[in-house]
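If your schedule permits, I should be very grateful for your opinion on a structural question. I have a record of one protein: its chain in single-letter code and its fold written as discrete structure tokens. Would you kindly read the sequence against the tokens and tell me how you understand this chain to fold? Thank you for your consideration; the sequence and its tokens are set out here.


***
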Amino acid sequence: MNRVKCLLLFGLRLNRLNLLLHMLLDETFELIKLRYGSRFNHITIEKLAAGIFLTGIKLSNGFSGLASNETDRKDSCTFNRNRGFGDFTPGNFKGRKVADLFAVPEPTCFIKTVQLAVMNALSAKLITEPGYRIIENTDPIELIDLTFKKQVCVVGAFLTYIKKIAESNSVLKIIELNENAVPEEYRQYYVTPELEEEAIKKSDIVFITGASLANNTLEKLLENIPDKTKVILVGPTSGLLPDVLFAHGVDIIGATSITNPDKMLELVAEGAAGFHLFRSCATKICIVNES
């Protein structure tokens, strides 16, 4: 595994300025396939649940994963003028090979979300192997010392983090595509689009929601973050095999470990958000970059 990591890191350094050709998710997916080898071609989808906030998946290898839903799904099969009844449409996911899911031409927003959930499920097995530092039952913010004044930027309307940081001695900045998603009492910390890059570059710590993986904004964010800044990726979508994310500057990944896949799927189908899962079928974990 060390050899693979070294080759990966070398390749990433050479291509750091050309992320459009080597997207983080593509690199991670290729590494996942490499690590699984021939086993990858035999894994199938056992069950899928697409709720309001989350999409959950259970695979034939027993592992499960999550991904946050995009709010705009107008490219899904239900909005297709020709209607959608292909291989990966409602009623047709169970038993399909994961390899075929990633071979879908021009995947819709929904298919991309399912692919992310599957990548998280595949990664859930791989991160149990030696070589990764996993801290269980811990939220990333518990690993950060906010006693001393710091410049902290939160990318996304992550209310629990916003509240804790606002109550600390640190200086809080919030970056969010939808200003209305920031509660009124915290609107004073909102950064207008023209000042976002400056806020990120001045930050000591940057928290980024895993939804940035789904909306393709993470690459640009990481490009603008100085090397000295601690970068924390957090949320249900974040539980990917971390090698590529670490190589691009992420220091800590706050992910969700599923302890009861069937209960998770039940809750997701009933409209659960991430925090609903921690009462019965999931725990928080931190994957820490020690390089």
The chain has eleven helices and ten strands. Confidence is low (pLDDT under 50) at residues 1-7, 9-22.
